[in-house]
Amino acid sequence: MNHITKAVRSPVAFSVLAGVVIGGLFLVGTGADPVAAYGAVLSGSLGADGIGATLTTLTSVLGLALALAVPLRAGLINLGGDGQLVLGGMAAAVTGLYSPLPAPLTVVLALLAGMAAGAGYAALAALCENRFGVPLLVSSLLLSYPAASLASWLARYPLKEPGSSLPQTRQLPDGVALPTFGSSTVTVGLLLVVLAAATYWFTDRRTAFGYEMRMTGLSSRFSAYAGVERGGLTLRLMAVSGALAGLVGAIGVLSFPYRFLDGSLTASGYTWTGLTAALLAGAAPVGTVLASFFFAVLQVGGLSMERTTEVPRELTQVLQAIVIVFLAARLRFPRLAREHDNERRNDRENDPESHRENNPVRQGELT
Q1: Residue 216 · residue 75 · CB < 8 Å
Q2: In which element (H, E) is residue 44 found?
C-alpha cells in the first residue's frame, strides 16, 4: 500500500493528472465534450481496431526512449537520435539489398548492421567531447545533419528505385523482413525493443556498470572521486545509445514498406517523443516503458479523437507539453524550498547575534 501511495503522489503521476485536467479545461473552453474526447483517445488506441497501431508506434517510441534514457541516466543528453536512427535504417537497407546470405540470416545481419552504424556514429559524438572538448549536447545534435543528408543522397541517387518518382531505395528481396504477428503491422521488432528494456533494467539494477551510471547522474564529482573515468563511460553509453537508435531504424526498414524512404523514419518525430518519455521517467527503466506507452496511446488515440469528435489531434501534443512543464515545476520548486531553508539555517548558525538571542542560558553565563 505504501508503494501505491508513493506512486500516486509522485511528481510523474501529478504531472500526468494535471495535464489531463488542463486538457479537459481546454476542451470545455472550445465547446467540446472532454469525456467524449478522452474516450475516443482510449478506444481509438486500445480498442480492437487501434491496439495494433499503438503497439507499432510503441516499438519506435520505446526504442528511441531507451536509446536516449541510457546516457540520460548518467546525466548525458544525446540529441543525435535522428542521425543515428537514419544511418541505422540506411545500413539495414544496404545490407538487405546486397547480402548474399539466405533471407533469415540477412535479416539478422541487417539488424546488426543498423546497430553498428548507430553505435559508431554516436561514439563519434562522444569522441568529439573527449578529445576536442565539444559539448556532447552540441556534437550529437550537429552530427545529425550530415547523417540525414548522406542517407537522403543515397536514397535519391545511387540506391534509388528505377522509375520511381519517390526518393526511396529498391524494395528488399522477398523474405528479408521482420515477421509480423498475424495480419497486424506489429513485428518481432517490438519483442526486440522489450528485450532491450529488460536488459537495461537488469544492467541498471544488478551490475556495477549500472551503479556507475546512476552515481554519475547523481553526482559526477563523486563518481570521479570514486574512480569512474568519465570519458570512457561517455563513450560506452553513447555507443549503446546509438546502437539502440540504429536498431529502431533497422526495424523501420525491415517492416512495411520494406525499403528506405527518405524522411519516413524522422517524419513522425519519434526521437523527440522518446526524449520526452525518458525525461518524464527520469530515465528509470520501468518508468521509461510506462511513459513510452502513455505517449504512444496519445499519438494513436489523437487521430481517432480527431476523426470522431472533430477535436484536433494537436491537443495530444499540448498534453505532452503540459505534462513536462508540470513535472519540471514539481521537481524544481521543492528543491528551491529546501535550498532556501538550508541557507537560512546556515545563516542563523553563523550569526553570533542570532545565536545569543536563541540561547539565553549561555547569554546569562557570559554576562
Answers
A1: yes
A2: helix 34-46
Phi and psi angles of residue 159, each rounded to the nearest 5 degrees, phi first: -105, 10
Give the integer Cα–Cα distance in Å for 165 and 156.
10
Torsion of CA 161, 86, 294, 182, to 10 degrees: 40
332, pLDDT greater than 90: no
CB-based contacts of 279: which residues, under 8 Å, 6+ apart? 72, 324, 327
Cell numbers at residue 186, please? 506489429
Mean pLDDT of 135-152: 96
Q: Does pLDDT of 354 surpass 60? A: no
Q: Report the alpha-carbon distance of residue 46 to residue 273 in Å, rounded.
A: 19
Q: Model confidence over 224-240: pLDDT tens digits?
A: 888 899 999 999 999 99
Q: Which three cell numbers stand for residue 264?
A: 519516413
What gap in Å lies between CA 367 and CA 349, rounded to an integer? 21
Cell 480498442 belongs to residue: 47
Higher pLDDT, 8 or 124: 124
Q: Are 160 and 169 within 8 A, CB to CB?
A: yes
Cell of 83: 542521425
What Å distances lie between residue 224 and 78, 130, 214, 360, CA to CA? 21, 15, 13, 46
